Amino acid sequence: MKYERKTFPGGTHIIDYKGFTNSLETVAAEAPVRAYIPMSMHIGAPSRPLVEIGEEVKMGQKVAESQGFVSVPAHASVSGKVVAIHRMPIPNGRMVDTIVIENDFRDEWLTPLRQLPRDTVNAMDKAALQAKVLEAGVVGMGGATFPSHVKYVVPQDGKKVEVIILNGIECEPFLTADHRLMLEQPEKIISGLKYLLRMTDCQRGVIAIEENKMDAFELMIKLTENEPQIETVVCMEKYPQGSEKQLINAITGKEVPPGGLPIDVGVLVNNVATAAAIADAVEWEKPLIDRIVTLNGNAIKKPMNYRVRIGTLYEDLIAQSGGVIGETVKIISGGPMMGFAVYSTAIPVMKGTSGILVFNEESHVLKRETEGPCVRCARCVDACPMRLEPTTLMKAAKKSDWNRAKEYDITSCMECGCCSYVCPSMIPLVQYIRLAKQYVMSKDGNGAVNPFLV
Amino acid sequence: MENITKPLILSSSPHFHSRYTTEQAMKEVALACLPAAAAGIWFFGLQALLVMILCIAGALASEYLCRRMMSKPVTLKDGSAVITGLLLALCLPPALPLWIAFLGGAFAIVIGKQVFGGLGQNIFNPAHIGRAILVASFPVQMTTWSPARGMLANASTMATPALVDATTSATPMALMKTGAMDQLPALGQVIIGQVGGCIGETSVIAILLGGLFLIFRKHVDWRIPTAYLGTVLVLTTVFGTVKGYGMMYPIYQLSSGGLMLGAFFMATDWVTSPVTKKGRLVFGLGLGILTCLIRFFGGLAEGVCYSILLMNILTPMIDRYTKGRIYGGSGKEGKPA
Question: A26 and A307 in contact (C-beta within 8 Å)?
Fold first, then answer.
């Protein structure tokens, strides 16, 4: 059967390296000996610890509460004793207060996990559903980690939600966590979407899946056959198809204005994993304490998807997967296009950790030639999904020409990395743009000297 | 973790590259030049091959010397000097004395490229700078055309005793300039390249083969050749009708002189053409207008080289005024592709 493939202008095709892990069942990872729960697993104000050192905690117990509106609580992913609260690094390199829980391996829940009766769920009004999402500490699980409840409360100020898009694109190479989730727990994703529709009085939900996951697409088509509000669409395999703005453009033809939010064009976007977490939060009152993580890269002996407790250290997960081949030289948290290179393996899996990629020195993927001169081939201009001129921005950045950078809309750059990926002269375009953008957006962004490049 | 002995590599994302490099692109451009070069050797003999070799040698030697003199890394490896030399040879007459060819290659690199700072910095198309300097310096040699192999020695061929091995042959461009429509060779000959002219400019078929390959491989945006050739087609149709040159006039205009090679290989040079899509259309339009103005009213028979050089000057300005609407920017609402 042929389906119309949706897409957006620009972008680039990237070898996806998804084979192998996309056909393996997700395996439950062992619970860690110690779980490390950072207070900043989301965008917004950090959570505030509710427990003290020495305190016994149960699984699913709220160990930190949200501070402010754009913030979420955090929960214990194991049962045991709080042994420390100290600062430690998270994947993006920042140091964050972290609650350390020593696992007693009894996995005792605070309240035994049970499914709420259908009638109770159906009787919940909007506020009750939103409260459940907040209480479960659900954040965007595609990597942005924006607190989910915020998106569904904001529309109250007169803006109407016309369509809710579930993002099942997963356009980053190597990652197959969302793919496996769609194959293994599609019903959960669909019911999560239904709660989202109920929360916003929205009549149309779209599940968008990239064409390299046709098995998941066909399964989802079948399961949504009798759901008049929900349609499943297939999108062209192209990076960054899963970027929020590009996905909105592909599905609705609309464009989010610069500096605006999807709700400005009547759209809300959530990751499929977030929808599944919301279904758990509503039907089981289960907080977000685990997620699927892709473990991959040429140094990993057994690449696979694992259901991992939040707070498991990278090194613990890598060790139990069967270890590594050769000398590890680089570890990426997330995908290779937008993920973070980490400097330590003693950092915890968080709510937004979609993958851990481990590479040894034989990896051709990481080889980088020296930067050459720009030959104005305009491949970056053609690839930029925001339709910027990366080459012009890069030259402005090098010359500390902030006015030129602003004139060419540097703040609209979402740092997807297409320009750096396609540049035949190996110029790290987005890296230059990132530096200039940070400066332009900073308080003294009108300075004459480039503090990064002198 | 026990398998980590050195500090992990830290870098800013993306951690991934397409592996497609400038060197690779240059190789493909050289490949695209091959049909035109082969046609030149077939029609004009060994002499054409020698001109190519000397041009490339001149380009490589001067590139090497310039880089050494400027204490900059030697950049012969990127292949751009080879391309410049080869493209220059393709728009030179086959009977050109070899030392002039060598000099042309050197001019193209030194004046056309290295004085601006090397690859990516030049304002003008280096090959055409080389050609323009040669035309100004050696006007006789640069307009002495030897006949193509198998070409009938018809009325337009006149023997000059001074040139021993060459009967000079009027090019279709020169014939059209004087309005001698009845003396033009058959269209078939023009298309395959069996006419007098520059080494790589005569065979429309061979140039199209290479040009379409470049478009297919996305080295070249279709917009520049399309806008350029389209403009020339329209203007020559109008001019031909006014002058009463007949239906075939625009076709001869399109297939003769340096237009085809210019449209696909010279005007599309990355460094000296606009980066915006709209800008490329404007660029092609300007090229078409300038070329026709020179061809119709100028003192020269051919205007491709000078039009491209003139439009090269305007490239930064065109880029500036054709900045596209960004995603979500004000203006017409974008449509999914």
Answer: yes
Q: What is the pLDDT of residues B315-336, one digit of tens each?
A: 999 999 999 899 998 754 444 3
For residue B16, being part of any structural domain is answered with: no
| pLDDT, position A276 | 97
- How much is the pTM? 0.90
Considering only CB atoms, which chain A residues are within 8 Å of B329?
Answer: 257-258, 409
In chain A, what residues touch B15 (CB-CB under 8 Å)? Answer: 330, 332, 336-337, 339, 341, 365-366
Mean pLDDT of A365-377: 85
Q: Using a CB–CB cutoff of 8 Å, tell me whether A337 touches chain B.
A: yes
Over residues A148-201, the pLDDT tens digits come to 888 877 555 677 899 999 999 999 999 999 999 999 999 999 999 999 999 988
Question: Please, what is the end-to-end C-alpha distance for chain B in angstroms?
Answer: 47
DSSP state of B262: I
* Paired sense of beta strands A163-168 and A267-271, if any: parallel
Q: What is the mean pLDDT of chain A?
A: 91
Cis peptide before A373 (omega within 30 of 0): no
> B8–A342: do the CB atoms touch at under 8 Å?
yes
Q: Domains along chain A?
A: 5-26+113-283 (3.40.50.11540), 29-103 (2.40.50), 290-366 (3.10.20.600), 379-441 (no CATH)
Q: What's the CA gap between A337 and B269, in Å, rounded?
A: 30
Looking at the fold, whether B193 and B126 belong to one and the same domain comes out as no
pLDDT of residue B331: 57
Predicted local confidence at residue A448, as pLDDT: 46
**Is A327 within 8 Å of B12 when comparing Cβ atoms?**
no
Place of tokens 């109920």: A198
What is the 8-class DSSP label of residue B186? P
pLDDT tens across A7-28, in order? 999 999 998 899 889 999 999 9
For A385-403, what is the mean pLDDT?
A: 94
Best of A15, A332, A376 to mutate (most B CBs within 10 Å, chain B): A376
Are B171 and B120 members of one domain? no
Domain of residue B123, residue span: 22-142
Residue with tokens 């990127």: B78
Quick one: how many helices (H) and strands (E) in chain A? Answer: 14, 18
**Residue B108's Cα: distance from chain center in Å?**
13
A433, A394 in Cβ contact below 8 A? Answer: yes
Tens of pLDDT, residue by residue over A319-352, are: 999 989 988 899 999 999 999 999 999 999 999 9
The verdict on whether omega for the bond into residue B126 sits within 30 degrees of 0, i.e. cis, is: no
How many folded domains does chain B comprise? 2
Q: Which of residues 92-151 of A touch B (CB under 8 A)?
A: none
From the list B326, B315, B238, B305, the residue with the least C-alpha distance to B282 is B315
Residues B48 and B136 in one domain: yes
Report if residue B189 sits inside a domain.
yes
Query: B195 and B136 share a domain?
Result: no
What pLDDT does residue A155 have? 54
Say how many residues make up chain A: 454
Count how many Cα atoms sit within 13 Å of the Cα of residue B238 in the half-sphere of its side chain: 9
**B79: contact with A, CB 8 A cutoff:** no
Alpha carbon of B218: minimum distance to chain A alpha carbons (Å): 9
Which of B113, B142, B171 is where one domain is finished?
A: B142
- Give the total residue count for chain B: 337
Residues B63 and B194 in one domain: no
Question: Is B304 among the domain residues?
Answer: yes
The Cα–Cα gap between B335 and B327 comes to 11
Intervals of chain B under pLDDT 50 = 153-167, 332-337
- d(C-alpha B256, C-alpha B260), whole Å: 8
**Among A41, A89, A104, residue whose Cα is nearest residue A315:** A89
Residues B69 and B136 in one domain: yes
Reference B251, options B307, B299, B191; nearest CA is: B191
